[in-house]
Amino acid sequence: MEYMIKFIYRFLLPPGLFVLVFALASFVLLRKKQRFGHLIGGMTLLMYLATIPLTGSLLIHPLENRYLPPAHPKGDVLVMLGGGATLDTPDMNGKGQLSGDAANRLLTTYRLYKQTKLPIILSGGKVYPDSGIEAEIGKRQLVALGVPKNKVIVEKKSITTKTNARNTKTILDHQHFVHPILVTSAFHMPRAVMTFNKLNVKVTPYPTDYLVSKRLAIYPGQFVPSEGGTVYTALKEYVGILASLF
């Protein structure tokens, strides 16, 4: 019964509602022998495929499985890339919090620090007027968890993966780090590695923040439109990877 409620619920709110409305419009137009119905039908199919979880899983899966976290990572510095932050939301010891992606990356970075005691470079600046400075928020939270201040280097000017890599390389060169362990979301790792490689920075990938399970499961919920942005996330990465080739 609970699954049936979830099924109905997804068609009462966007994007499922839009898919349902366009599907009905297409059906009515086709019944009236109007060619415009085929166009609406095609748009409806594309909208449906773009909003069901299965499509997102199929697109994200190859990205997230490109690299596996090493059991015993070896390097001389941890590099974490930012992934979004709020500006003035209340936190336990200040204002501003990291987004879900960035918070997952920070948690992994902290656990790696506990294991390796390596210094940390946090790369991420203020992306939008209402965004927090990701690296500064991350440092505050790491220090609150017990990481010494002098172990955390803040790079707070980057707003893209390209500037993450370029600005981090400057710090690596200045501090004489040569074996960085890169921490970012698994779906983002292929593009991040390519970007660092273009600057002749060889990183050890340590992916985290997985969006889909390693084993792809097929069940009815995979075919119901969802408000999640997995397809958008995947397409953004593929476009970024393509752009990195030039």
From TrEMBL:
Annotated DUF218 domain residues: 76-240
Keyword Transmembrane: yes
Transmembrane domains' residue ranges: 7-30, 36-60
Highest taxon, organism lineage: Bacteria
Organism of this sequence: Sporolactobacillus kofuensis
UniProtKB keywords: Membrane, Transmembrane, Transmembrane helix
Protein name per its UniProtKB record: YdcF family protein
Database matches in InterPro entries: Cell_Envelope_Assoc, DUF218, Rossmann-like_a/b/a_fold
UniProt xrefs under CDD domains: YdcF-like (cd06259)
